[in-house]
Structures are given as structure tokens and as C-alpha cells.
Specification:
The protein is an all-alpha fold and 231 residues long. 78% of the residues lie in helices and 0% in strands. One of its GO terms (molecular function) is sequence-specific DNA binding.
Amino acid sequence: MAENNNSVVLFERFFQRWMVSQEHHLDELLTTERNCGEYGEKKMTDLVSRVLTHYQLYYEQKSRVIERNVFVVFSPPWFTPLERTLLWIGGFKPGLAFRIVAEAVGELSEDQRRRMNELQEETRTEEKLLSDELARIQETVAAPPLMELARQAGRRRDGEILGSDSVTELLSSALETVVRDAELFRMSTAVKVVEILTPIQNVKFLGAVGRLHMKIRTWGLQRNREGGAND
């Protein structure tokens, strides 16, 4: 029980450390992009691999929170309110990767464009399937509003399931399946994008992902400070 009660708090501490490492990885990506002529493909590939491993660690740790209380990932206390408004089934929408590629990577070869377009179409289809499944779950079990359960979970900041009634338990079980599918989908989409791109393109892609993440995080924290100053 103590482990359950501490799961969210422990993850928040992990997330703070993870963000520090994220900044270091971003610095390394941006330095490599600026000085790409000095780096061979192997060094760039090794860097990309380390960055992907860093994201994988995040998902592995987050999985423990999902197991103990899936509701909390719909309004995670480790994110700012601004960041929470951008969530899709507990995380970023996989299709965002293609917008970043288009804006940050530059020209793709004909084969790359074909493969990227095919992957983008597959991603749109899977996103819709998961979104529809999430809506179906709530309708089927006559669920209470999901965001209200998420807010309650965030306020409690622990790993206990909210309530013991059969509806909530059924909802929790069904949501856990959808969220885990979404988490796997997020990571697999990123890996497939990386497989299509060249090493320097991947450095640009992951650098742009990191910049966007940090920018949204900074804006969210700034809003929090300004809101607190106005209270």
C-alpha cells in the first residue's frame, strides 16, 4: 500500500531528474546539428540511440504509474496546466512527429517521402481507432466524466484507485489497456520515423522535438509563476 501511495510522488521526482537529462541531450543535439561536418554518421547514430533510450526510460517509469492509477495520466501533476491541454490519451499525439519532420528536417528523398506518407496515413488511422475506443469505453460503462476523475487523482497525488465501485474499476481496467496501447503507439511511431531518416536528419528531428518540449514546458512554468503572482 505504501508503494502505491508513493507512486506518483516518486514519478514526479524521477521526472525532474529526467528533465535535467533532457536538457543535456538537447544541448548535445543542437551542438551536433550546428557542427555536423565535424561528426561522423556513427557518432550521430549513437547520439540518436541514446536520446531514444532516454525517452524509453520515461515510458517505462510512467508505466508503473499507469498500473497503479491510470486516471492520473489524463491530468498528470508533473505537467503544467498548459502542457495538460495538449495531451492526447495521456501523452503527445503521434501525428505531431510528421509536422516536426516537415518543419525541421528539410528536403526528403522521393523514397523517404513515400515511406513517410504511408506511415502518416497509418498513424492517422490508428489515432482515430484509439480515440474512438476511448469514447466507446466511457459510453459503454456509463462512466463519470473522465477529466473529473483525473483531477481527483491529481489532487490525491497517490497511486490508489479512486473508489471501489464496479463502474470505476471497470473503467480503470479498460482505460489502462487503451493508455498502454497509446504509449506503445507513441514510441513505435517515433522509432519508425527515425528509421526513415538519415543520421543528420534524425539529429534535426529530435532536436526540434526537444526544443518544442522545452518551449512548452517553459511557457507553462511561466504562466504558473504569473498566476501565482496575481493571486
